Amino acid sequence: MTQRVNKQAVAQAFGRAADGYERYADFQRYSGERLMALLPPSAAGTVLDAGCGTGWFSRRWQQQGHRVIALDLSSGMLAQARRDASAQHYLLGDIEALPLRRHSVDISWSNLAVQWCDSLAQGIRELHRVTRPGGRVLFSTLADASLHEMRSAWQALDNYQHVNTFLSEAAIRQACGKLALRLESETVTQHFPDVLSALQSLKGIGATHIHQGRASGLLTRQRLLQLQQRWPQDAQGYRLSYQLITGVIDCE
What we know:
Order of helices and strands: HHHEHEHEEHEHHEHHEE
GO molecular function: carboxyl-O-methyltransferase activity; malonyl-CoA methyltransferase activity; S-adenosylmethionine-dependent methyltransferase activity
Function: Converts the free carboxyl group of a malonyl-thioester to its methyl ester by transfer of a methyl group from S-adenosyl-L-methionine (SAM). It allows to synthesize pimeloyl-ACP via the fatty acid synthetic pathway.
Pfam families: Methyltransf_11 (PF08241)
Structural class: alpha/beta
Low-confidence stretches: none
Radius of gyration: 18 Å
Family: Belongs to the methyltransferase superfamily.
CATH topology of the domain at 7-144 and 164-189 and 243-251: Rossmann fold
Shape: globular
InterPro entries: BioC, Methyltransf_11, SAM-dependent_MTases_sf
CATH architecture of the domain at 7-144 and 164-189 and 243-251: 3-Layer(aba) Sandwich
């Protein structure tokens, strides 16, 4: 359940996407809304938004009366969140080594960020550590069926890795150990008019860093046409699917 992640490269990729991120973040907003729906209304408290991105959900938490700590690995994303007055406090940091003391927040929230951890178990331990007893950890992540259309299309063309490998639902559950966990899985499929639009949806949010080696060079028109011929589609367009995992941990 561990992998070597080049955190600097991940931060740079997301930083490059910061200015236009929210134009492409439909799935991220969907995931966050699903996650928020799992938490009943609560009294105002301190929320850690771990992997805050541009601060879309930090602002949502603020609107509900919470004090928000926005944390991100990317200085570019954090700067955008600050420009939009998304939180009361901003921290440049890593979910696997949170710069916060034990039991310092009421809710630890992480929407589609923990898949960039070297060790999901370590990331979950850190979110749990900083959350007070009686509080909750809420996280969403991607499981191994995610982006299977893109993976299968590329596998028909070459032997390079073009899509990151995600953990299975069982491995995600195992990473949470004996914590009081509720886990849900859902398949979310987006449709695009062409393959370039599907690829742009990933580039637009900065999710372009591949943990292991990949093919170099530009995506030529011919290569794109070959990819499009192999990419699964239906009557609605070219598909891009995610296996969305949402988790809630009650802290005791």
